[in-house]
Write a structure and sequence with these properties.
This protein has about 230 residues and is α/β, with parallel strands linked by helices. The protein has 2 domains: about 1-25 and about 165-225, no CATH class; about 30-165, Collagenase (Catalytic Domain) (3-Layer(aba) Sandwich). The chain is about 20% helix and about 25% strand. The protein is built from 4 helices and 10 strands; from the N terminus they run αββαββββββαβαβ. The protein has helices at about 5, 50-65, 150-165, 190-200, and strands at about 20, 30-35, 75-80, 85, 100-110, 115-120, 130-140, 140-145, 165-170, 220. The strands form 2 sheets. Strands 2, 3, 4, 5, 6, 7 and 8 form a 7-stranded mixed β-sheet that branches. A 3-stranded antiparallel β-sheet has the order 9-1-10. The longest helix has 19 residues, at about 50-65. The two termini are about 25 Å apart.
């Protein structure tokens, strides 16, 4: 049994965990991701690999559970010019506009806790979706580096938002939990709820095909939504 099959999630009044669906913005495959490092916080460069691993993890899981290994692709370019692709494409993105920009930045005024933010696209969005991952923060009046595990987990969570997921509501735990929506906090990898919610929005054939039009304030309920 896979970890996705073994996870038990329970919340709404009928015992069904659910997750907010923020957007189904993406309609192309592959998506171009630029990972940039704030020039004033050079220590952030050491965490680029954690973001790359998080994106590759999402791609691999979506391919695995959809059964479609030709979709769910991302071309990733780092600020040092290194280009990685998660899919079966030779397309390079050096001269292509980014769909997603993820900035790694140290913030000596930021209290340790929430280590990432992601903007939500508007209906007439024409610019890339922007996400920020904090690579240093304040803990007991000292500047600390959260570490690779925390940065990987935060990158996984924020990339879930980038793909269109909101926060999960469950009495157990979930990658897409916030501090206020789950009893036991988050986990490092997507749950059955997260994966199925993305398939509910986009289908199992990747981002580029026709997909469900979401109403305002849409939710996916495990075991209920079809």
């Amino acid at each position: 049994m896979s970890y996705i099959q073994s996870i038990q999630l329970i919340p709404d009044n009928y015992g069904n965990p659910y997750i907010k669906l923020n957007h189904d913005y993406w309609d192309k495959d592959p998506l171009n991701v630029y990972i940039v490092v704030n020039q004033q916080t050079h220590e952030s460069q050491g965490f680029v690999i954690d973001v790359v691993h998080a994106i590759a993890k999402w791609s691999n899981l979506l391919k695995q559970y959809s059964g479609d290994d030709t979709s769910w692709n991302f071309n990733i370019k780092t600020s040092s010019g290194f280009v990685i692709t998660t899919g079966l494409t030779n397309e390079r993105i050096s001269n292509l506009p980014p769909d997603i920009i993820i900035e790694l930045v140290g913030d000596p005024t930021h209290k340790c806790g929430v280590l990432g933010t992601t903007e939500r696209p508007t209906l007439d969005q024409v610019k890339p979706i922007y996400s920020k991952i904090v690579t240093s923060c304040i803990l007991e009046n000292e500047v600390v580096l959260p570490g690779h595990r925390a940065l990987f987990s935060s990158s996984m969570h924020e990339f879930g938002h980038i793909l269109g997921l909101g926060h999960a509501f469950t009495t157990d735990t979930d990658l897409m939990c916030s501090d206020h929506t789950c009893i036991n906090g988050g986990m490092e990898e997507p749950s059955q709820l997260d994966i199925k919610a993305l398939f509910y929005m986009y289908g199992t054939d990747g981002f580029s095909g026709p997909h469900r039009e979401l109403a305002e304030d849409s939710y996916y309920k495990l075991g209920v939504s079809q």
